[in-house]
Specification:
The protein is mostly helical. The chain has one domain. The chain is built from two helices and no strands. The chain is elongated.
Length: 74
């Protein structure tokens, strides 16, 4: 039982692609919000190291999910 295919009979490559697209949307939204937070903290002169680290992690997850979506071939 995999992360993107829980159970048998839940669909093929098209269903996996849809789940990855949904995940892309969630991660993309939170990455965008983390970017706004980081920019605001930088402009205000506050420490933004934590926000920048979170943004970097979210961007990495976004890229990995994008790559997984491209490998589905649908």
């Amino acid at each position: 039982m995999g992360l993107f295919n829980p159970g048998s009979g839940t669909g093929g490559a098209g269903a996996k692609a849809q789940r990855l697209e949904l995940l892309l949307g969630f991660i993309g939204f939170f990455a965008f919000m983390a970017m706004i937070q980081t920019v605001v903290q930088e402009v205000r002169g506050e420490q933004a190291a934590g926000s920048a680290l979170l943004l970097a992690i979210l961007l990495l997850l976004l890229w990995l999910t994008w790559r997984a979506r491209q490998r589905t071939g649908v």
